Task: inverse folding
């Protein structure tokens, strides 16, 4: 079985292994349903770039035309793709933490090609909003540091999971692009993982603005 973690719609993420968190429940935004004429030029360019990169990564030389159904938030990714790929007839499941997908092992070349096309279609019918692909500003990274070194550490501690690594200085965190997380090095039982990640997200969605 091949585990693919949430965020595969990103240009480099078809084989992504870094977990991207769900937003805090109280701040979880709604997805954006697309209608004719309501996609601005920047978003259209982002979708075209994503489709070209995804087709190349999946080895699809004749990608089918796909019309986006809606632009989703990061916390919608796994469930949305699960439903879409299951509806397409493939046995896809969620990872234990609920953050990503486990793709089926396929030995038949023709079936693999069909699955890759289904992945392509599902990714582009429900692409993540462009704001998640934008680099975080210094101010946003400082906000993220305050959240992870404070609220997130306390959230994990309240559930019996102390941070396995000490927070770096804010300067080091910002210079690294926000790499550090109190989740790093933690051993969370699979039976608890989905709930812990849901209640203690690594990154609050408020960080990305409206």
Result:
């Amino acid at each position: 079985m091949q585990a693919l973690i949430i965020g595969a719609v990103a240009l480099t993420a078809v084989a992504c292994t870094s977990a991207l968190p769900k937003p805090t429940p109280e701040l979880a935004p709604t997805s954006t349903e697309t209608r004719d004429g309501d996609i601005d030029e920047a978003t259209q360019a982002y979708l075209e770039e994503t489709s070209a990169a995804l087709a190349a990564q999946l080895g699809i030389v004749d990608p089918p035309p796909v019309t986006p159904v809606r632009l989703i938030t990061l916390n919608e990714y796994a469930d949305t793709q699960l439903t879409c790929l299951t509806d397409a007839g493939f046995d896809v499941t969620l990872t234990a933490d609920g953050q990503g997908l486990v793709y089926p092992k396929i030995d038949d070349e023709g079936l693999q090609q069909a699955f890759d096309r289904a992945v392509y279609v599902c990714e582009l019918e429900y692409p993540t909003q462009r704001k998640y692909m934008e680099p975080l500003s210094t101010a946003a990274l400082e906000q993220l540091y305050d959240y992870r070194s404070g609220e997130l550490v306390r959230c994990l501690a309240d559930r019996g999971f102390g941070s396995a690594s000490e927070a770096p200085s804010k300067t080091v965190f910002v210079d690294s692009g926000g790499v550090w997380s109190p989740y790093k090095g933690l051993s969370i039982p699979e039976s608890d993982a989905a709930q812990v990640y849901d209640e203690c997200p690594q990154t609050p969605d408020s960080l990305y603005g409206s």
